[in-house]
Known about the structure:
1 helix; 60% strand
Amino acid sequence: MRAIGLLEQDRDRTHDAHGDPSFQESSLIVWHDIKQGVGGVWRTSQEPVNQVSHSCFGLFNKPGLRFRDNFTEHPFPADARGPHHMAPKENLRLDLDRMAISAQFPDAEADLTFTDLHPRWDYLQLLKLVGPDGHQGAHLEMAGRITGTVRLGDQRYDIDCFGHRDRSWGSRDWTTLRAVRWWSIVFGPDLAIQMTAHGHANGQHG
């Protein structure tokens, strides 16, 4: 049996860019409460040396109501980043110790916590992957349970469902990436599937 390395909790915290302007750190959380017909996604990333953040936050429900807030290269606010959090704007915050989302908008709110269902496997080692050209660093993928509350328009929901999160950090050259597709399927505590398909300028794909 092959031994797979585990990443400790402190690897979920922010990392030193060591002056590298191409260093980027990201976190993504997706979830869908099927019984209530509501779900959401938040991906945020930061470039510490360049002092900018990127974010894509969204909520949806079964009747068709949608909320989305996207931005790119937003200058760091005063409290954008610390050892235990990422906060791309004053109304968006991710607590990296509790893996807790706080989002406050006039038309939507979220107060959610992600609890891992399994240890932090070293994703690249697990799949025997080598990062493509221009994409070096560390990566983890986690299935988990999402709990908390959200508001979408006038509707409020108490959330308790399964979800998935992605955490990565390292050098990123986005000019080499040509296409990517990403799927996560969490059946429960005993079975979860994560798949990606990507193509790069040098012909590398996976």
